[in-house]
């Protein structure tokens, strides 16, 4: 059997595979919504003035434990009107940050949304089929999420980052929302 090498015969399929990888990873990264737009939408176009919470002392230690990394800054901005608060958090997926917005209302997540995704894999967490799982999730007695969040094959680290941020948003909201009296 005799094979002749034809220039370009293998190059074309290889080029197509490489381009498919670029298109796929390029599709993953992006800004899906700006933090400003998320906050504006969260409060029907009239967001309250941003407030700040210090991530030091016990709260800083809680942040490091939950997020598995140090706080990116000592003060974190949030927006609150009565028992409803909005949080923009960031966590490392595998190697790059994922930015997400969370709305907490009366101790439960009202909304979770991926705003900016910079990883090459795991971008499926931005879709509603995944983020809907966080709706009405709160914290249990042990300060963990009170509902199971399903993972996505190939997106384990992104799912973990999103779950950690959701938990942290709930813990932070507890710090700034006064407990309401039970009759």
Q: Can you give a write-up of this model?
A:
- The chain is an alpha+beta fold.
- The protein is 34% helix and 22% strand.
- The protein contains five helices and six strands, in the order H-E-H-E-H-E-E-E-E-H-H.
- A six-stranded antiparallel beta sheet has the order 1-6-5-4-3-2, sandwiched between helices.
- About 10% of the residues have low confidence.
How many individual β-strands? Answer: 6
Oligomer: single chain
Sketch the topology as an H/E string, one letter per element.
HEHEHEEEEHH
Q: What's the rounded overall pLDDT mean? A: 86
Task: Kindly estimate the percentage of residues that lie in beta strands according to DSSP.
Answer: 15-25%
Question: What is the gist of this entry?
Answer:
Helix 3 (57-67) packs antiparallel against helix 5. The chain has a 6-stranded antiparallel β-sheet, sandwiched between helices. By secondary structure, the protein is of the alpha+beta class.
């Amino acid at each position: 059997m005799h094979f002749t090498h034809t220039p370009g015969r293998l190059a074309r399929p290889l080029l197509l595979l490489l381009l498919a990888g670029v298109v796929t990873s390029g599709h993953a990264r992006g800004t899906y919504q700006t933090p400003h737009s998320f906050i504006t939408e969260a409060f029907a176009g009239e967001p309250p003035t941003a407030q700040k919470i210090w991530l030091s002392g016990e709260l800083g230690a809680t942040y490091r434990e939950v997020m598995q990394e140090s706080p990116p800054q000592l003060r974190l901005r949030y927006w609150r009107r009565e028992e409803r608060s909005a949080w923009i958090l960031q966590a490392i997926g595998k190697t790059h940050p994922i930015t997400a917005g969370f709305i907490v209302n009366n101790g439960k997540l009202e909304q979770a949304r991926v705003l900016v995704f910079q990883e090459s894999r795991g971008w499926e967490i931005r879709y509603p089929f995944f983020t809907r799982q966080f709706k009405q999730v709160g914290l249990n007695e042990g300060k963990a999420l009170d509902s199971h969040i399903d993972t996505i094959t190939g997106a384990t680290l992104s799912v973990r980052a999103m779950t950690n941020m959701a938990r942290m948003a709930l813990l932070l909201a507890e710090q700034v929302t006064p407990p309401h009296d039970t009759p």
